[in-house]
Each structure stands twice: as C-alpha cells, then as structure tokens.
C-alpha cells in the first residue's frame, strides 16, 4: 500500500493535469484532541471525489458540500484563488456537529487549483526517493519546492506554510516465514514499502503477500543494496545467525531508524556476545540493536507477535518513548524475579 501523502498528491496531480478543478486541504494547527495530526492532507475534486482525510468524516462532508455547490451561501471558491485558512470546532456545538473529540479544534489551509507542474515535480521527487520541503505563500498560493536533508514538522506563519514530504517508509524483513507474512501485511497497511529477503528456497516458495517484494539474495547483500536511510527499518526473523548477524551488522552502519531481531532474551544476549567476540563489536556499537523485538502484550501466536513488533516500529517511527512496562526483556526479567521469589517463599 502506497504512502498516503504520495497517494493524495498523485491523485491531485492527475486531476490538475487533466484540467479538473481541485483543492488541497492541509491540517495546519490543532487545539485539544484531533482525529488527524498536523500535516495531514486531503485532495478534493470539483466533482466531490476525495483522496485522503483531515478528520473522521464530518469535516470532509462539509468541505464537499461547500466546494461542489458554488451557489451556496458559504460556498468555497472555484478556480485560482489565494489560499484560505478555515477553522472547525471553535465552539462546543460546532465540535459536536463535525464529530471532533471533546474540546477539539483544527485549522485547515485550503489551496485552490494547485499548479499542476509543481505537483508533477513534487511527485517525481518523491518517486525518486527524495525528501522535499513544499513552501506555499499564503498571499498568492505560489509554491516553491526545495530539497530537504531531514524530516521536519509542518511550520506555518503569517507569510507561508512549509510542509515536508518524503518517500515511503521502508521495511526490510529478513526471513520469509509465517510471521514474516503477518508483519509484511501489517506494514503494507501502514503505508510501508516492504521487502522480504530469504536465500532459502523452501521458505520463499510458500511466501505469498501481494505488494511485498520477495528477494532471494543474502540478507547482508540486500541491506547494502537498499542503502537504508532514516525512513527505513530492518527486522530479522529467521533465528539463523548465518542469515541474521551479518545483515544486522550491515544495518547498524546505516541511519535506519529501527534495527532489531526476534528471539528470546537468551538468544539475543548470545547474538550480542557473538558480535562482540567474533565481529569486533562493542556494547556501544550495538546500542541501536533491538531485541527481543516488539512490545509486551502477552503475545504467543505469530500474528500476535507481528502486532507487537509493528507497534514498536510505529512507536519508534513516531518518536514515542515506550515505558519500561511494555519492554519485553524488562517484563520477562520482572516475571522471572517474581517467580523466583515465590519459589523461595514456598520452599
């Protein structure tokens, strides 16, 4: 499944290249609870077609009505106009009307008939794996595209809005087993581009996840070829040191935002010791290596374990600091200590 921003921008570009009227809505500010974060975008065609979202649905319905009914008293303009800032949920009654959470207010920037050429350049840059700042002058809607070195939060002031768009987040899964199928499926639904590599033909033969790229190359060669960036994560699921260890070591030389391996606490400790003893690693060089991967949810089955892994990947991606109470190793260590204490008491 394609990155949602790219999907929205691609649809908007196609509409504008075809000469169709359309607007681009961007969430620029929120107060209180909000169903969509700042930076979320939605494309709305003059015929009422919608791609993306800025809320749970009620705001979209209002925008559709105001944009597709030009004779209405509160109709939105058609054709080329300066961008317009609009707020929803200012009062409690309005928040309730538009389905916003209690106390929620959001502000949108509406751009009318964005330039097709600039949209084409932006989509091409994203397809080429580049990160881009899109600057919009609020006075006239003029758009300027600039290369970006790192992801950034949306910024808006009295003169301009700057939203940063990047290529798809990527997930490399090492191993094509059953759990890999569940994890790949979840990652695709979360907008990741998924690659699965496994040189073992018997595992590849049964792997079937539409949308995931399946490779027969050695994992460390695959990592090197992918050139992971800060929007890439790598998860090793084979339990086989011959496949996992060198790939993980290769990944640690990159800016990938998440690098981890499945396995018990004992297996992960053994992996670290192997890397220190035989691969010239140190505790510092292995600091970014996660394991056991996932958050503690009491998972036992492959799909439940995949859920826990995807949850941790998304938390790291979104910059959420997870408490010790959901760290698998921490919880298992605490449980082991509690069990040992109970045993001593009983004895």
UniProtKB/TrEMBL annotation:
Q: Where is the XdhC Rossmann domain?
A: 171-313
SUPFAM superfamilies, alphabetized: NAD(P)-binding Rossmann-fold domains
Q: Classify the source by domain of life.
A: Bacteria
The record's InterPro entries line, in alphabetical order, gives: MoCofactor_Util/Proc, NAD(P)-bd_dom_sf, XdhC_CoxI, XdhC_Rossmann_dom
The record places domain XdhC- CoxI at 15-73
Name-wise, this protein is Cytochrome oxidase I
């Amino acid at each position: 499944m394609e990155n949602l921003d790219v999907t929205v921008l691609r649809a908007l570009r196609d509409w504008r290249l075809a000469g169709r009227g359309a607007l681009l809505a961007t969430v620029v500010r929120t107060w209180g609870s909000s169903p969509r974060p700042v930076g979320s975008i939605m494309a709305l065609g003059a015929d009422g077609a919608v791609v993306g979202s800025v809320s749970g649905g009620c705001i979209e319905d209002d925008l559709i009505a105001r944009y597709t009914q030009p004779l209405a008293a509160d109709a939105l303009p058609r054709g080329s106009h300066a961008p317009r800032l609009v707020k929803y949920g200012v009062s409690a009654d309005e928040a309730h009307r538009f389905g916003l959470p209690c106390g929620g207010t959001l502000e949108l920037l509406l751009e009318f008939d964005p330039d097709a050429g600039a949209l084409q350049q932006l989509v091409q840059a994203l397809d080429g794996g580049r990160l881009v700042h899109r600057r919009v002058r609020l006075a006239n809607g003029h758009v300027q595209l600039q290369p970006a070195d790192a992801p950034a939060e949306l910024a808006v002031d009295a003169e301009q809005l700057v939203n940063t768009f990047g290529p798809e987040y990527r997930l490399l899964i090492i191993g094509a087993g059953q759990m890999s199928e569940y994890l790949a499926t979840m990652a695709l639904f979360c907008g990741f581009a998924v690659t699965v590599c496994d040189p073992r033909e018997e595992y590849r033969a049964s792997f079937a996840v539409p949308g995931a790229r399946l490779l027969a190359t050695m994992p460390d060669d695959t990592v090197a070829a992918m050139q992971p960036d800060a929007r890439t994560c790598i998860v090793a699921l084979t339990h086989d040191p011959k496949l996992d260890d060198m790939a993980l070591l290769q990944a640690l030389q990159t800016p990938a935002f998440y690098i981890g391996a499945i396995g018990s606490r004992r297996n992960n400790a053994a992996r670290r010791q192997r890397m220190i003893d035989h691969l010239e690693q140190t505790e510092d060089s292995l600091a970014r290596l996660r394991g056991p991967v996932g958050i503690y949810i009491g998972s036992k089955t492959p799909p439940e374990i995949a859920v826990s892994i995807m949850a941790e990947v998304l938390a790291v991606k979104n910059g959420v600091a997870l408490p010790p109470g959901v760290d698998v190793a921490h919880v298992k260590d605490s449980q082991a200590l509690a069990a040992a204490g109970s045993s001593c008491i009983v004895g």
